């Protein structure tokens, strides 16, 4: 076994030919560096830390097998991962919203939220938004991306980002009964 093959635990299954070990190291470094931000993004998208972690794991698993292609074809792998997460979340939401439970769920102990802000009205209102609007709001105000970066991340136009943000803000304003603010003053 060569030194390159022993660089990572469990890398014995990877062939040294073709550079697969170095690709694994690159992907591993990428995951290590971006995982905290991706977990925050997944949590903000799903509204649940466990579902967010599952979303991140699912997307990284799919991307890991195509890492070389992702690096070569996309200029920004983190944007590609975020877009994949948003798409996977929307797809999962579409699949699960049609599911009907046929039996009552057994009584269980209530789950203690891991986040102290779990029951804050803003977080509840944010979780009630449609997935696309929630993704735009999270990327804009939580991740601090510009409209152009959000459009590139989600694969939509800047106009779509603006309209989704406008609809989301209007919905949040209604749900939270916030006054409309224009140019630093309350609207009368």
Automatic annotation (TrEMBL):
GO terms for MF: DNA binding; sigma factor activity
Organism: Amycolatopsis xylanica
Record-linked Pfam families: PhyR_sigma2, Sigma70_r4_2
Family, similarity comment: Belongs to the sigma-70 factor family. ECF subfamily.
Protein name: RNA polymerase sigma-70 factor, sigma-E family
Domain RNA polymerase sigma factor 70 region 4 type residue range list: 120-171
Keywords: DNA-binding, Sigma factor, Transcription, Transcription regulation
Keyword Transferase among UniProt keywords: no
Residue span(s) of domain PhyR sigma2: 31-74
An annotated GO BP: DNA-templated transcription initiation
């Amino acid at each position: 076994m060569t030194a390159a093959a022993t660089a990572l635990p469990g890398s014995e299954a990877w062939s040294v030919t073709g550079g697969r070990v170095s690709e694994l190291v690159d992907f591993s470094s990428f995951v290590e560096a971006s995982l905290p931000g991706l977990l925050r993004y997944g949590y903000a998208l799903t509204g649940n830390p466990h579902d967010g972690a599952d979303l991140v794991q699912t997307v990284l698993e799919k991307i890991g097998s195509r890492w070389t292609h992702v690096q070569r074809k996309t200029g920004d792998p983190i944007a590609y991962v975020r877009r994949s997460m948003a798409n996977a979340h929307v797809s999962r939401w579409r699949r699960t919203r049609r599911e009907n439970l046929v039996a009552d769920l057994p009584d269980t102990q209530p789950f203690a939220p891991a986040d102290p802000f779990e029951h804050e009205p803003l977080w509840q209102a944010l979780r009630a938004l449609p997935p696309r609007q929630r993704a735009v709001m999270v990327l804009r105000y939580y991740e601090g991306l510009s409209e152009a970066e959000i459009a590139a991340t989600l694969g939509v136009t800047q106009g779509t980002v603006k309209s989704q943000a406008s609809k989301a803000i209007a919905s949040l304003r209604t749900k939270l009964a916030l006054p409309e603010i224009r140019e630093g003053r309350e609207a009368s």
